[in-house]
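Annotators were shown the component list below and the corresponding predicted structure, then asked to write short factual statements about the assembly.
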Amino acid sequence: MAAKDPFKFSKTDFQLTRLVAGLAALATLVIAVVKPVAAWVVGDPLVAEVERLAETPADGAKPGVTLTHGSAVTAEFADAGASLWLASIIPGALFAGILIVVLWLLWRLLGDVERGEPFTLANVWRMRGIAWAMVGGAFLLFTVDGLANAYLTQHAAEGASTMFTNTTTASDLLLPGAGFLIGALAEAFKRGVVLEGDVEGLV
Amino acid sequence: MAVDERHRVVCHLDDLLEARGMTLAALADEVGVTVVNLSVLKNNRAKAVRFSTLTALCDVLDCQPGDLFTVTGP
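Structure shown to annotators:
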């Protein structure tokens, strides 16, 4: 008799994975989109973390802006316009969108795996979708975040004229790296689809 | 994904069973494969046959692979 696989996904594991995915999507949507949009609607001041302002003295802020220097530099815009609010919200909304797409594709993929039908062309395309969303999304997010940060910085500090500002670390490569890995797995799944087709007619 | 592999192999399991007065279920039982799989083979819907299955079929039906299968003209 084959030994029991301790890592085999049970029905509970599938349900827990779905629950975690659902909660992660919901939490990201609330934190990255709903909360800042609500603050905008009720007229709260815009508080945004800005980069590359560590050298800027606290009194170098533009009128109507309060800079707070801590572990990060925070700019509080007393009367922020729509463009500033959008610059503050768009990177988070983009991240939430990418996450929801990835989790939705993963959700559908898990459904097929649970039914014992992982090797289908639909799943190959789902995995490719996840890979593209992760690799493309990481680069898109980096670009949009850098532009939005620079825009906020320009409006927060006197003399700031940067067009793009973003700090990168080695861990930023983790997301595209995982995307490439899933893309490679999709190719392995494609091979599995062909083999499954062969086995179906084997007597 | 269904692989579209057309073939011209015809299975004569029906004739062999009739000649021996045997049912498909009895053959499946003796060979050790499912009736569904043997039915797939009998109706020419199989894409491949394991040598082990072929050996067992020939043993039980007391025949050769050539008695079970022929290839029709193109």
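Statements collected:
1. Chain A has a mean pLDDT of 89.
2. Residues 26-192 of chain A form one domain.
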